[in-house]
């Protein structure tokens, strides 16, 4: 998905910021004490989730395919003086350096933009330590209105929870569970569209 510098600069809207704050608490509820642990955010954007979580982790790495988002995140990190968040290149995750490195991998509102879900999960699962946790937050299946005004969107209109749980299990994750993490309303030009996000958890055996 292409993000211009202008779009990245305006990404941190009050609505996204409020949602991120709520999701930070949902993630903390799942992971408990994270002192001494390492994490990776897939599709970090401008770092709204990671900024909320970094005080609780030893280190968080972030990865995003959008250069404009990476630039915006880097500027925010420098401005805030945050030292335990390290942006990395997505392509580097395909090598050996990060295999078995992370206690937690999390991603929010990213996977419905990815066409090859199985391929992405096949990349993610080996990056977890044994006993590590993958947390996927994404849009419940909907009728297409959520992205109706997003030009160029060619992803999924959310996901069926049972289907996604099966995909996590196919990627080798176990003890998969799912619950509702957030409900909200997206304001379009001519209507308000209610939506819900699920939080799916899988463990690396």
TrEMBL record:
Signal peptide: none annotated. It holds the Pfam family Methyltransf_23. Keywords: Methyltransferase, Transferase. InterPro entries: SAM-dependent_MTases_sf. One of its GO terms (biological process) is methylation. The keyword Transferase applies. GO terms for molecular function: methyltransferase activity. CDD domains: AdoMet_MTases. This is Methyltransferase.
């Amino acid at each position: 998905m292409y993000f211009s510098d202008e779009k990245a600069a305006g990404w941190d809207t009050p609505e996204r910021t409020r949602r991120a704050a709520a999701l930070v608490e949902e993630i903390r509820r799942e992971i408990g004490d994270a002192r001494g642990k390492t994490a990776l955010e897939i599709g970090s954007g401008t770092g709204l989730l990671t900024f909320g979580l970094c005080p609780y982790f030893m280190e968080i790495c972030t990865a995003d395919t959008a250069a404009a988002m990476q630039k915006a995140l880097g500027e925010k990190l420098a401005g805030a003086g945050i030292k335990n968040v390290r942006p990395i290149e997505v392509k580097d995750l395909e090598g050996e350096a990060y295999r078995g490195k992370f206690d937690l991998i999390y991603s929010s509102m990213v996977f419905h933009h990815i066409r090859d879900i199985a391929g992405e999960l096949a990349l993610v699962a080996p990056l977890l330590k044994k006993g590590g946790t993958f947390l996927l937050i994404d849009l419940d299946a909907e009728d297409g209105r959520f992205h109706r005004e997003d030009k160029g969107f060619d992803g999924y209109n959310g996901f069926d929870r049972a289907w996604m749980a099966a995909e996590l299990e196919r990627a080798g994750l176990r003890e998969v569970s799912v619950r509702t993490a957030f409900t909200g309303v997206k304001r379009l030009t001519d209507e308000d569209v209610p939506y819900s996000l699920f939080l799916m958890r899988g463990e690396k055996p």
